[in-house]
Design brief:
CATH class of one domain: Mainly Alpha
CATH topology of one domain: Butyryl-CoA Dehydrogenase, subunit A, domain 3
Bound molecules: flavin-adenine dinucleotide
Oligomer: single chain
Distance between the termini: 67 Å
Order of helices and strands: HEHHEHHEEEEEEEEHHHHHH
Strand order of the largest sheet: 3-6-7-10
Shape: globular
Number of helices: 11
CATH architecture of one domain: Up-down Bundle
Largest sheet: 4 strands, mixed
CATH superfamily of one domain: Butyryl-CoA Dehydrogenase, subunit A, domain 3
Strand content: 5-15%
């Protein structure tokens, strides 16, 4: 493996040689109406068997490219990284994209959100235990934040952790936990001091998802698949050296994860994107509606807004590249993405009409139902549209704070 002074040219040659030896170049998919796959789903709609096979394949590929020096290009050498700048990471991604390799969605939450939090807040012992394994694909991590009564108001969460010697005992329920069914560890935020104001009595931990007392129950979504879960914790023991940050400082830990979450969703990661305008234009023509002035205008609107979102995303990425923290731009990015998905949904509904209600077998028509049914989930995941608007209003535009409802009088 080369050192951190390698030129981009030499790095690209090294990466290409590895890819040539270990993966097949992508076959150019036939483009145009009726050609290739018509799948446009936003969420994974797989059976458990298909999912397990995909996870195993993704892990094997990650292990292979980590061992060759491409698994954590920007990371510290102590954990198997190469300490190169993010331009090398982008170079690797652009080269890998030319080859047919297993997708990385299995690791989206673990590497996009949990691992950066571990790096920022975990004990040295926990960093040694987990960082290398996460980036090598030996382990998968999930995010255990939301609860039945704490989503947007995350600081209202109730799962408790109580200190017992040098261990914490965790009891409570989390919900909407994506990927918990195949995760080995989770980042959990618990209430450790109920007497403190709600943002102040929280602490973050790394919890072993295979520990006694952890129960994962799948939740089926309206699109058919079951990509997230309820997770129950019944007196689960967590060693104190698995704490993230200081006791009762969990809100700072949660914010680190949430900023990275918005960056990975709004920045175009996370396996989601709006459909290309050319695909929508093909749909319009195939349905014989290319002369409909209103639909043409809507298509132009989608194209313009997608381009604006792309440039906003690039601007935010440049900020990160310059060493600044992802900030409110990520909320704008997330909002722009879901607004464009909603525009696309409404356009497709108008173009296809009844064709999205029943599967006639016609290529590229009923397939859109999975996209349309997935959009509401995207508008909620990672912070709802309304919450993103509040953040943009208050922190970007400097508008007055959202009025808080009066606390309910005692006994009401
Ligand atoms: C696909 C998907 C994957 C997810 N994966 C995970 C995961 O892996 N881990 C995890 O911890 N969580 C996950 N979540 C949960 C997600 O973070 C929450 O659903 C989200 O934070 C919203 O919380 P809630 O569902 O409790 O809705 P609520 O917070 O109850 O909101 C209900 C409605 O009220 C509105 N609202 C709430 N507060 C305000 C306000 N102040 N101003 C204006 N409107 C408001 C909301 O916009 C929404 O329309 C996932 C969710 C989805 C859809």
């Amino acid at each position: 493996m080369a050192d951190s002074t390698i030129s981009e040219q030499d790095f690209a040659a090294e990466a290409t040689a590895f890819l040539e030896a270990n993966a097949k170049p992508k076959q150019k998919e036939e483009a145009g109406w009726g050609k290739g796959s018509d799948k446009v789903a936003l969420f994974a709609e797989k059976t458990r068997e298909e999912e397990q096979a995909e996870v195993a394949e993704a892990k094997a590929w990650r292990q292979q490219f980590f061992d060759a020096g491409f698994g954590w290009i920007t990371g510290p050498k102590a954990y198997g990284g190469r300490e190169l700048s993010s331009s090398y990471e982008r170079l690797w991604q652009s080269l890998e994209a030319k080859y047919d390799t297993p997708g990385g969605s299995t690791f989206g939450i673990g590497l996009g959100m949990v691992a950066p939090t571990i790096l920022a807040h975990a004990t040295d012992h926990a960093k040694d235990l987990y960082l290398r394994k996460l980036y090598r694909g030996d382990m998968v991590a999930c995010q255990l934040f939301s609860e039945p009564v704490a989503g947007s108001d995350l600081a209202g969460l109730q799962t408790k952790a109580e200190l017992d010697g040098d261990e914490w005992i965790v009891t409570g329920q989390k919900v909407w936990t994506s990927g918990a069914q195949y995760s080995d560890i989770g980042e959990i935020i618990c209430r450790t001091d109920p007497s403190l104001p709600k943002h102040k009595g929280l602490t973050g931990f790394i919890v072993d998802m295979h520990a006694p007392g952890v129960e994962v129950r799948p939740l089926r979504q309206m699109t058919g698949g079951a990509s997230f879960n309820e997770v129950f914790f019944n007196e689960v023991r967590v060693p104190d050296d698995h704490r993230l940050g200081d006791v009762n400082q969990g809100w700072t830990v949660a914010l680190t994860t949430l900023m990275n979450e918005r960056a990975s969703i709004g920045g175009g990661g996370g396996g989601v994107s709006t459909m290309g305008a050319s695909r929508l234009a093909d749909l319009l023509k195939a349905m014989g509606k290319q002369d409909d002035a209103v639909l043409r205008q809507k298509l132009a609107d989608i194209y313009i807004n997608t381009q604006v979102a792309r440039f906003t995303g690039l601007r935010a990425m440049e900020k990160i590249k310059a060493g600044q923290l992802p900030g409110p731009e990520m909320s704008i990015g997330k909002l722009a993405l879901t607004n464009n998905m909603s525009r696309t949904s409404r356009f497709v509904e108008q173009v296809l009409g009844a064709r999205i209600l029943a599967d006639t077998g016609e290529w590229g028509t009923y397939a859109w139902a999975e996209f349309i049914l997935g959009v509401p989930g995207m508008r909620v995941a990672g912070g709802t549209d309304e919450v993103m608007k509040n953040i943009v209003g208050e922190r970007v535009l400097g508008l007055p704070k959202e009025p808080q409802p009066e606390p309910r009088p005692a006994g009401a």
